[in-house]
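pasting for the record
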Amino acid sequence: MKLRRGKLLVDPPDCSSSDIAFTLIIFFLVSAGEHTETGIPQLLPKTEAKAEKGEQSKNIEVSITPTGIVLNGSPLQLPEFAQRIAEALKQKTREADRIVVVKSAPETPYPTWIGVSQAISQAGGVLTLELESERTINVE
């Protein structure tokens, strides 16, 4: 006579896997921490109501392109630009005269932009960004 043996069905407890998952979530949240991104602090100049009589301030203009840097109309590379901007700003005594207007092409590489802005701030200039003006297109 054969005895019938039934299969033993033993399920692992479900509550332990949820406890482990909860513990892992807490561990990763605590160990991840918070990382804040930092940039270059820049002080934007205040607008002046009117210039004093007889004093016209000529701002320094810088254009950044993907291929180089243009300082007041003369093309330069970054090392030479740092020297020339320092010389130009050394002559300026008032803070209103130390404003540097920067125009940047959309395709400008980020390292070039950072190098130019650092050179301006290290030379004591006040960085001002000029947004691209809207262009009118004649359609005929």
